């Protein structure tokens, strides 16, 4: 069904690299597929250790907290849409303060605080990939921030047609996702359709 959907909207499907049906025991985006999506035990253990580490401290660095949040977000396929709803509500709630005279500077500063919780190399990589997405959007007169689900889907679909590696595709998706989150707008990357690509 997914193959026909992709062909129907004009994508080229590389039959040699495509797996149209999941097999039990296969890995999808770092999660196990064994009749249902499951979290590998080493990921759960890593997540548990991060949470225990934070619970035992009296002072927690923003970077440590961000690491735990990233762990939760990376497991969203197994957890379901809880993270998406929370993510959207939090940023949407902050948006209310953007035009308030007393709080606007603080709200504008928060994305920088969140961004600085990532390593400099991670930010540089995200900025580089997002810049390429931004230039593509400008070339075709699409809005890059906030981008629409269809804009991100067409962009990623083009990368797939160019046969970029899985790691490059994931880097683009992660970078677009990250910058959309930082914009304090609804994030198109949280849409279930994009998780199917």
Automatic annotation (TrEMBL):
Give the highest taxon in the source lineage.
Answer: Eukaryota
List the SUPFAM superfamilies hit by this protein, alphabetically: lambda integrase-like, N-terminal domain
Instruction: State the UniProt keywords alphabetically.
Output: DNA-binding
Single GO molecular function = DNA binding
The reply to whether DNA-binding figures as a keyword in the UniProt entry is: yes
Q: Which InterPro entries match?
A: Integrase_recombinase_N
Per its record, how is this protein called by name? Uncharacterized protein
Q: What is the organism of origin for this protein?
A: Mytilus coruscus
Lineage runs: Eukaryota, Metazoa, Spiralia, Lophotrochozoa, Mollusca
């Amino acid at each position: 069904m997914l193959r026909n959907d992709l062909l129907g909207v004009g994508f080229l499907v590389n039959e040699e690299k495509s797996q149209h049906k999941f097999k039990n025991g296969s890995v999808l985006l770092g999660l196990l597929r064994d009749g249902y999506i499951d979290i590998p035990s080493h990921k759960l253990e890593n997540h548990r250790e991060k949470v225990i580490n934070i619970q035992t401290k009296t002072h927690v660095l923003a970077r440590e907290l961000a690491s735990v949040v990233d762990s939760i977000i990376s497991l969203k396929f197994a957890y379901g849409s809880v993270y998406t709803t929370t993510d959207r509500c939090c940023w949407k709630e902050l948006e209310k303060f953007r035009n308030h005279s007393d709080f606007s500077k603080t709200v504008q500063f928060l994305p920088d605080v969140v961004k600085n919780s990532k390593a400099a190399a991670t930010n540089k990589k995200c900025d580089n990939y997002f810049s390429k997405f931004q230039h593509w959007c400008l070339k075709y007169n699409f809005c890059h921030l906030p981008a629409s689900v269809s804009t991100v889907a067409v962009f990623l679909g083009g990368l797939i047609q160019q046969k970029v590696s899985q790691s490059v595709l994931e880097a683009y998706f992660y970078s677009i996702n990250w910058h959309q989150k930082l914009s304090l707008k609804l994030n198109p990357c949280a849409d279930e359709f994009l998780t199917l690509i």
